[in-house]
Design goal:
Helix content is 44%, strand content 18%. The chain is an alpha/beta fold.
Length: 215
Amino acid sequence: MTLNAELHAFYTARQQQFPAETRQIMRRAGQELADSGHADRALTVGARAPRFRLPSATGEPVSLAGLLAAGPVVLTFYRGTWCPYCNIALRALQQHHDEISARGARLAAVSPQIPDESLSLADRHQLAFSVLSDVGSDTAKQYGLAFDLPDDLAAVYDRLGFDLQRVNGGYARTLPLPATYVIDREGVIRWAFVDADYTRRAEPTDVLAALDALG
């Protein structure tokens, strides 16, 4: 089963757990974000990847320059530990981590959550790659990915107990669009996946193909 087939199956099952009003709010917010064209304005192939220096789950600083020193970089942005779609996508990347490494690439995942939340995620899923904290979403903003939740969807997330105020270090409303980039050693984006729909993610096999295309 592909990653997106797994995500779709999860979405279909999960929708039955929500009241009709909650489903309506989620769908309307998702459609408004898609219609805004935000994903089309994010950085894409040919752009120079903005440099960053972010704390890892254990508090160690990790920079894009440092990652690129070892080879190309696969950089993925996700919403947080509270998002089950993100967890599924990160587990899928972990399953392909050896293949990514075999191509000389480094994998790093970025979210707006605090390091303690990232550490919990890394431990729970036994992630072998860097999980970085972009509190305040400054890096996501540089990549054109950051957006603010509408009031009604933020209220839904509060009712679901996600507590984004805490896990995002006081920046409860700002999240990144799901995105994955393949960045070459010169710091240029050579492959990009950006989608306003958080239930869709980059297929790991497509990431591997993009790395192979780097030559």
